[in-house]
């Protein structure tokens, strides 16, 4: 599974906004600079996040962006879905809608299990958790395995 640059940037920008609280709004340029995200790319991401109700914007000389609801109520999964759509797709289809024949007949269950595990992590971590560095134990326990940090 790949995490797109768009999703990575969106989560980082949202975490940065969580650190700022509700006042004052943060300019897109400041967010881009703080997280080393290309400004023009971030503008599109912020538009997606605004459309999904994760951030809100304020125009004017003191304008910028802030979270639309408390960081504790926004999960990493919410942010990823806002910019990339469903968490796990196989060839553009939901895993539960796939059917295979013969030796591959069990593959939809593998894809559904993958989706369930991705959800188990991304829906458990709130933006507040991320910002505070207090990840849930279910996530921390997965990272304790040395093999989790290497690619075979």
TrEMBL record:
Gene3D superfamilies: Winged helix-like DNA-binding domain superfamily/Winged helix DNA-binding domain
Keywords: DNA-binding
InterPro entries attached to this UniProt entry: TR_Rrf2-type_CS (IPR030489), Tscrpt_reg_Rrf2 (IPR000944), WH-like_DNA-bd_sf (IPR036388), WH_DNA-bd_sf (IPR036390)
Superkingdom to which the source organism belongs: Bacteria
Coiled-coil regions listed in the entry: none
SUPFAM superfamilies: Winged helix' DNA-binding domain
Pfam families: Rrf2
The keyword DNA-binding appears for this protein: yes
Name of the protein: RrF2 family transcriptional regulator
Species, as recorded: Georgenia alba
């Amino acid at each position: 599974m790949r995490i797109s640059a768009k999703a990575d940037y969106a989560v980082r920008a949202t975490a940065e906004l969580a650190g700022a609280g509700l006042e004052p709004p943060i300019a897109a340029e400041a967010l881009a600079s703080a997280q080393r995200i290309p400004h023009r790319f971030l503008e599109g991401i912020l538009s997606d996040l605004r459309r999904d109700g994760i951030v809100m914007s304020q125009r004017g000389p003191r304008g910028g962006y802030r979270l639309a609801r408390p960081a504790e109520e926004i999960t990493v999964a919410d942010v990823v879905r806002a910019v990339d759509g469903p968490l796990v797709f196989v060839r553009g289809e939901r895993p539960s809608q796939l059917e295979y024949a013969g030796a591959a007949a069990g593959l939809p269950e593998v894809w559904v299990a993958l989706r369930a595990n991705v959800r188990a992590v991304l829906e458990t971590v709130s933006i507040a958790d991320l910002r505070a560095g207090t990840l849930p134990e279910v996530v921390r326990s997965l990272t304790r395995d040395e093999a989790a940090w290497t690619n075979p």
